[in-house]
Every structure is written in C-alpha cells, then in structure tokens.
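Changelog-adjacent note: as of this version, every example in the card shows the full chain rather than a window. The one below runs 194 residues end to end.
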Amino acid sequence: MRSLKRDMAVWVGSTNPTKVGAAETVFARLGVHRVAGLQVSSDVSVQPLGVEETRRGAVMRALHAQELGRARGVMGTDTAVGVGLEGGVERAPDGSGWLIGVACIVIDGQVLVGYGPRLLLPPVAVAAVEAGEELGPVIDRLSGLTEAKAGIGAIGWLTSGLVSREASWVVALGAAAAPLFHPDLYAAGPAGAG
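Full-length structure tokens:
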C-alpha cells in the first residue's frame, strides 16, 4: 500500500456533517487535510438491515465517492481516496435490534473496512424500522428533534449525549484506517497471508 500524501484528496460519500467531520478528524491524524463530501448512492436500501447490507452500502459509497471525486478532478485525480459510512439496523436472534455503523476506505485498489459501536435500540424503534421506516425520522419523532441524523444522531440521543454520532463514525473510520496508520504491520495482507 502506498503511503498517504498530504495532497491526497479524500472524498466522503455523503454530505452529512457528522460523516464528513469524522473523516476530517481521522485523515488529519494521517496528515491529510483535503476532505470533501459528495452526494452518492449507497446502492442499498434507504435503511439497510443487517451487517452485510450495511457493509455493502459503505463499500459502494466509498467506491462511488472515489469515482466521482476523480471525475471532478478538483482536488487531484490519481490520489483520490474514497470513504463510505453507512448506518444500519441488525436484528438479533433474540428479537432485539441493534444500531450498527460500518466505515470503508478505498485506496490503491484496497478496500479497508471498520465497524463502530453497536447500540441496543428501543423496541418501538425496531418495530418502526421493520415496518419500513428509516431510523432517522423515527428517532426525530421519539426525541422531538429535527434531523437528528445530521447532528446528535440516534446514538447521541440514546446515550444522552455521551457518545455523539460523529464520535461513533470516528471509531468506525479509525478502525478501517488501522492499516494506514501501520502499513508495515499490514503488508502481509489479511490474516498474515501473502
């Protein structure tokens, strides 16, 4: 994997300020300060259900952001990094529902994935999601907030502000970025193969 350069362009597959802010935080730690959000498709449901669909949404957002960023050429073309962040709901065998977050970084043909915290959702929220609603509006209705997903988010509201939505995305994206922080340790590839 090529080392990161300060002039690299990082394109986030969302214009949501919590997602772009998380990318700015993580990539600043890596010495990269050119981060911008783009509206792209996740190619999954508006409300992904399960880890696999949520992961697929994050990967597709990262790929689409990298492709669109390169096409725009505003911040550079050959060094574009794509970032995708996708929230989902996972139903457990016991009937409980969990808020999940998956982050993806696409760089040099590699797809790096990380996971954020899992949070138990209230049964009323799980029932609404299973009835076809997106979690964001459900949380708005339950909390009395407007556009919570662009701010505190479900995780922030349900933890009474202890864990912000942006902080949860920093965790997921930081986990995905581990090979970028320590490329020498990951040079052998997954599970030491190579």
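Structural remarks: The first helix runs from residue 17 to 29.
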